[in-house]
UniProtKB/TrEMBL annotation, chain A:
GO biological process, alphabetically ordered: signal peptide processing
Protein name as it appears in the record: Signal peptidase complex catalytic subunit SEC11
Segments crossing the lipid bilayer: 27-45
Residue ranges occupied by any Peptidase S24/S26A/S26B/S26C domain in the UniProt entry: 50-134
Top-rank lineage group of the source organism: Eukaryota
Membrane topology (UniProt): Single-pass type II membrane protein
Pfam families from the UniProt entry: Peptidase_S24 (PF00717)
Organism phylogeny: Eukaryota, Metazoa, Chordata, Craniata, Vertebrata
Keywords: Endoplasmic reticulum, Hydrolase, Membrane, Protease, Signal-anchor, Transmembrane, Transmembrane helix
Gene Ontology MF, one: serine-type endopeptidase activity
Localization terms from the record: Endoplasmic reticulum membrane
Automatic annotation (TrEMBL), chain B:
Localization in the cell: Endoplasmic reticulum membrane
Protein name: Signal peptidase complex subunit 3
Protein's UniProt keywords contain Membrane: yes
InterPro entries per UniProt: SPC3
Keyword Transmembrane helix: yes
Gene name as annotated: Spcs3
UniProt family annotation: Belongs to the SPCS3 family.
Membrane-spanning residues: none
One CC-aspect GO term: signal peptidase complex
Amino acid sequence: WPRSGGIRGGAAMDLFGDLRRMNKRQLYYQVLNFAMIVSSALMIWKGLIVITGSESPIVVVLSGSMEPAFHRGDLLFLTNFHDDPIRAGEIVVFKVEGRDIPIVHRVIKVHEKGNGNIKFLTKGDNNEVDDRGLYKEGQNWLEKKDVVGRARGFLPYVGMVTIIMNDYPKFKYALLAVMGAYVLLKRES
Amino acid sequence: LRKNVEDFTGPRERSDLGFVIFDITADILNGKNGLQTFWNKNTLIIFDWNVKQLFLYLSAEYSTKNNALNQVVLWDKIMLRGDNPRLSLKDMKSKYFFFDDGNGLKGNRNITLTLSWNVVPNAGILPLVTGSGHVSVPFPDTYETTKSY
């Protein structure tokens, strides 16, 4: 962009100077750029949902019930292929009917009928008892429809950011503000 | 990998409950280099730089009139990197109740016990591996009423 004359002191003064001098067209351009980044990110996420077959292909571990394998803040990568059978020993992420929170535990019992109907029981590695206490009132088994996905890969610590943003909303707003400022003021040379 | 079992069954409410006593002898070797893959069933498991722990479990697999396939985990153990990789457990009782979904244990001739493990890496893929060597166990035709387990 063409600079008008004058010497400004300090980078902060530069920033406000730029903001004032940016005309409408440049602002629209920056906003469109930002919108494109957001759309691409959304497309990638949707693409992952399609490829893995899971409604939530990446989840953050929220509790210590699978320690020492997984700790709070670890990231899990899931697949949920329809033809994948559920077998004892697998780590599944499931949702109890009526609750939003996904739970990551291990399958310890499987009973499958000839027609493909499966019912199974789960337990956290770090828990003394199985998950019957977590299921719905009167529910003794989980079924395929309760499964969000099977854990296939994992990265430690990376999910902590999500947990911090959840527990400290001010941090989330601060992060968004910084990101917004950066995107709007970023110059393309 | 060798297992020996003696067993008897008892009914609880309306489902069969099986009791199994087993020995486990397993050799899970330490690798000399970290480059071998560990998701091939025939390769020995290796505690390389990327293996944080193994989650071992003994599962019983069998078929009944009610259900074409049943799997019940009888026992599990977490083996951290650095733990003794040789298991030599004798006369172990199952950690978890071996309930069937129904009455399919009585007279069931073919219950297969297998040792498997879940490799938990420091970061990366989570494979499930089945150990070579499994044991087939028959359950008797009658219920036991003595509580000598």
